[in-house]
């Protein structure tokens, strides 16, 4: 009987260790999305975007929307190709045949605002 209770207790503790990080990650994702939606009302001129043109500060324009992809530059499977249009319009390259359809969902995580016409 003691062995059964101890086994159940240990199982509960292990389950909590596995569940708590997932809950925290979920909260973090919500706060990141909340921050993104707060930035969504921002508008930037092409001149403002052009200042973000390096590896450590990389913004791009896709279909008149502005994205801060700085955190993705090092992970980009195409290497430094993402830097070819840093601070500029990347629409043509983004919709090229080299990109899988999942990038269309991924890019929204980097959205910071709209381009002022």
UniProtKB/TrEMBL annotation:
Chain ranges passing through the membrane: none
GO MF entry, a single one: metal ion binding
Family, as annotated: Belongs to the cytochrome b5 family.
Signal peptide positions on this chain: 1-15
Gene3D superfamilies: Cytochrome b5-like heme/steroid binding domain
InterPro entries documented for this protein: Cyt_B5-like_heme/steroid-bd, Cyt_B5-like_heme/steroid_sf, Cyt_B5_heme-BS, Cytochrome_b5
Keyword Metal-binding: yes
Keyword presence, Signal: yes
The organism of origin for this protein: Castilleja foliolosa
Protein name: Cytochrome B5-like protein
Domain named Cytochrome b5 heme-binding: residues: 41-116
Entry keywords, A to Z: Heme, Iron, Metal-binding, Signal
């Amino acid at each position: 009987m003691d062995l059964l209770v101890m086994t159940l207790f240990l199982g509960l503790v292990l389950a909590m260790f596995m569940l708590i990080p997932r809950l925290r990650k979920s909260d973090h994702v919500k706060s990141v999305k909340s921050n993104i939606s707060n930035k969504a009302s921002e508008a930037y001129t092409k001149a403002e975007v052009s200042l973000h043109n390096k590896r450590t500060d990389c913004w791009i324009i896709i279909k008149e929307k502005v994205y801060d992809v700085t955190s993705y530059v090092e992970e980009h499977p195409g290497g430094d190709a993402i830097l070819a249009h840093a601070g500029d319009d990347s629409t043509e390259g983004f919709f090229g045949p080299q990109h899988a359809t999942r990038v269309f969902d991924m890019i929204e995580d980097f959205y910071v605002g709209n381009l002022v016409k």
